[in-house]
Design brief:
Strand content: 15-25%
CATH superfamily of the largest domain: Glucose Permease (Domain IIA)
Radius of gyration: 52 Å
Number of helices: 5
Distance between the termini: 153 Å
Length: about 260
């Protein structure tokens, strides 16, 4: 007859104790084991299971839609995808389309910059004076008409030596250099065909063929030729070099410039 084993002892005589003679893990151990599973491994297991189900569900052939659904379900299970959000494919365009868009934007910016520059130039052109007094701040000393038994065909504007002399209006320099009676002189042709004449200067600062705007400096005032003191002799020839010489005071007044 077999002697009954002592309480607390195993069948082999070893003392019974925590974990002795038993291969089942404790509840804490089971929980720790579950906690150590990696999301990637779990995702793989879920996906594999879904793929097998998809295979077996359709006569052994894989179902792409079912497999995709299984992947999405696995991702939702792991919290990778929010099941309340709709999964949409990534939007894209080709590189050629992107380059075309870049060129379109660059062309638009260039056109806008050109338009702005043109607007600024137009505003500046509209704002600048089209006619000026040939010597700013000059003293009017002699007018158009008879003088000392002869006819004076221009006006005299006195100022200190080497005061800047200005083009009365836009035009092209016709002549520049020595001139009888004037010492030195400059002739400018204007758009309407009139020619303005500047005499007695000390130094000429422009050359034949130069285009000048109204107000550009063309010479420095002087006392050369038949002169009684530093001044500018200014004439207007109507319609060209050989045209009728008219009163410069009236010619300037018609263009908004007052003399004296």
């Amino acid at each position: 007859m077999r002697t009954p084993s002592r309480t607390g002892a195993s069948a082999h005589g070893a003392p019974a104790g925590p974990g002795a003679g038993s291969h089942r893990a404790s509840p804490a151990g089971r929980r720790a084991g579950r906690g150590n599973r990696r999301p990637g491994a779990l995702l793989g297991a879920l996906v594999a299971g879904g793929a097998v189900a998809a295979w077996l569900g359709v006569g052994g052939a894989p179902d792409a839609a079912a497999e995709s659904t299984s992947v999405l379900a696995a991702q939702q299970e792991l919290g990778i995808v929010d099941e309340t959000q709709e999964v949409m494919p990534m939007a894209s365009i080709t590189e050629a389309e992107a380059h075309a868009r870049l060129q379109e934007v660059a062309a638009t910016r260039a056109a806008r910059a050109e338009a702005e520059a043109a607007a600024e130039a137009a505003a500046a052109e509209a704002a600048r004076p089209k006619t000026v007094l040939p010597v700013a701040g000059a003293r009017f000393t002699s007018g158009y008409g008879g003088r000392w038994g002869t006819f004076h065909y221009g006006i005299d504007l006195a100022a200190p030596m080497r005061t800047p002399e200005l083009a009365a209006a836009d035009g092209v320099v016709l002549r520049a250099g020595s001139a009888s009676g004037f010492g030195l002189a400059v002739y400018i042709l204007h758009e309407n065909g009139d020619v303005t004449v500047y005499g007695h200067m000390d130094e000429i600062l422009v050359e034949v063929g130069d285009y000048v705007d109204a107000g550009d400096t063309i010479a420095l005032l002087g006392n050369r030729g038949q002169s009684t003191g530093p001044h500018l002799h200014f004439e207007v020839h109507e319609g060209g070099m050989d045209g009728r010489r008219v009163d410069p005071v009236d010619w300037l007044a018609e263009r908004g410039v007052r003399v004296g």
